[in-house]
Amino acid sequence: MNKPTLSSNSGTSSSYLDKSQSRQYFARLMTPSEVASATVNRPLEVRQRTAGHWVLAGDISSEMFKLLGEAPALNFPMRLSGFSSTAGVGYCSLVHQVQRHQSRIVLPLYDASSRMFLEAMTKSEHLTFMLGNDGSGEALLLNSPVGPMQYMPLLALSCPATPQQQHEALRELPILQEIMGNPLQVPSLLPEYSVQHVNVSLLLPSVLNDCFQAALTKAARP
Fold first, then answer.
1. Which of 50, 69, 108, 190 could form a disulfide with 205 if both were Cys (CB 3.0 to 4.6 A apart)?
2. Between the CA of residue 87 and those of 169, 173, 185, 200, 212, what are the distances in Å?
3. pLDDT tens across 166-208, in order?
């Protein structure tokens, strides 16, 4: 699915430095109409499960993928949380966990697509997670257990950012990835397991695409 950008050991204590692993990927957020177009050639079961749904896609390690595939659905809880960065912009993380493995999908709340997504979730529209097997073509579909009211506080963090704030937010993305890759950053959702392996899928803001397009246009000029 979404090819990993890096794989590294991370942590703030000697035990985590030795045992934890952080993998970084890109996320993808699709509206129901985009999902319909993207799944037109997929198996019938996939089309039926995602019909009319938003889909939030990320990737996880092969080990976590295997554990999720084997575990009963109720054995991997989900957590939704929001936070602000030093640049003054908001983010949210959607976290799944199985045993000592967490998947953390991070959305920039100042981006128009994320705000549209939050508004849809508060109106009881449906969400399906698509977690890929470390950049391969395999993927698992997970239903979201989060209700509309749980998304409401995030709307307060989803204010549009000024152009200057957006560019400052771009500069802090590497730091954001490093922080979200720290096993200690998000508490374990399973009291009997400590988090030792983290998979971060970051949704890139649209302003980054605008910067790329501007750079390409400038480079193409004679």
1. 108
2. 6, 10, 19, 20, 21
3. 888 888 999 999 999 999 999 999 999 999 999 999 999 987 7
Query: pTM for this one?
Result: 0.85
Tallying the residues shown for the chain, one arrives at: 222
> β-pairing, 101-108 with 54-60?
unpaired
CA atoms within 13 A on the CB side of 67: 17
Q: Which residue has the tokens 């699709």?
A: 30
List the structure tokens of 162: 């000024």
**Is 10 within 8 Å of 183 (Cβ atoms)?**
yes
> Degrees (nearest 5) of the Cα angle 19, 20, 22?
150
Give dist(CA 206, CA 37) in Å, integer.
20
3-state SS assignment for residue 101 = strand
In 3D space, the residue among 61, 67, 54 whose CA is nearest the CA of residue 28 turns out to be 54
Quick one: tokens of 82? 């929001």
Contacts of residues 72-79 at CB distance under 8 Å and 24 or more positions apart, as own/partner, are: 73/142, 73/143, 77/145, 77/189, 77/190, 78/144, 78/145, 78/146, 78/189, 79/186, 79/189
Q: Return the residue matching tokens 């200690």.
A: 184
